[in-house]
Amino acid sequence: MSFEDLDDEDWVDPSWLGEVKSEIVPGMVLDPDVTKRWAVLLEFKKNGSPAVGNGFFVGIPDTTTHHIIFTAAHNLTTREGVRTADLTAVYETNPPDPSNPPGTRITQIVPEEDIYICEGYTKTGRPEDDYGFIRIKRNATEKTFGFGFSIKLAYEDYFKDKIYVSGFEPGNRAFNIANGACMECYTKIVVYEAKTQQGISGSAVWIDYKNSQVAIAIHNTGSSGNGSSGARLTPDVFRRAFNWIQPSVMKKGIQIRAYAPPKSKALPKLPDKGLFLSFESGMGFGRVRLGSGTKFDLMPGQSIHLKGGVYINEFCLATMDGKWVTFDCSGPRVSKIKQEIDDGCHFKIDKKKIVVEQKGRSYELRVENSYIKEYDENSESSEVSFQTYPSPDSARFNKFEFQ
């Protein structure tokens, strides 16, 4: 059922009418003011008539040219593919601008080239394809801001805690946060109890994850008596967002090659052909290979917002067929390929080191080549392991290039 099929009263939740105060569940440490600053009111014309919708900023790391807003595709186009006109994004200063008082709103006209619409929406109209993105130009001094994210949450089959929907009401433009229990999790759709109303489509659907507001879906559909729903933020959605906002955010088809500083006295000389992380042998775990390695897509896997505007960013590696590299710092086979992403897939990059945090400790990946000779062709060994981070340069290679 789509919102066109519903009567007005089906969309009304008391919190959206001011009858019940909008609030975050007591006991949480999250800041509602931050949530408001990440919300975006969209104004536009659809079929010639004024309309409103919502969107929200997402804190994607390593973006230098634009901020990105996630929203529902039906805020950007009709089912027939006719673009909405005069799209304007209205939002508060992020972070608060010292030259403007708190609550100052920015109005940004959005040109067509800064709009992305999932092509599946105009072809099928399916709710899982009802999403799109908006770019907002940024200068070099601006910090990243927006909801956190974690790709692993796309694989959750249920969320036991409250699910929140936050955005601006279509009438008085007041900001509100509604919440409700998770009802169903499908592969590309999440259904939740919080009722909504027409005009808030595109709002952030989020949870409290690691004490951070983390977006899990884009609200797009209300349902009479059967909950509301949103398009889940799946790996495919993130891949499209990363590639569109700035191609350098996701490095496609890279190999992981051991690196040694020029003229290093602490390390043996690397083979001219190079040492690479490889899963080519089909043994199910990572090995070190001479001359070439497995190709991966390197992308942001998780971004968690902390107080003070700080983000903890972690990356992940996907194979060309959409599987994920996971690391196990305690086992003899430190890297494996999995169908679904989990916490073991996340790592940080620090001065060319691959750093993994597990069980409260930090480790760094290392490789050796004691059993690989320069004259060998495409030979492999199992000399892949972890050592405590930070560790100095040693007889093992603990720095890598992504090329």
From TrEMBL:
Keywords: Signal. It comes from the Eukaryota. InterPro entries: Glutamyl_endopeptidase, Peptidase_S1_PA, Peptidase_S1_PA_chymotrypsin. This is Serine protease.
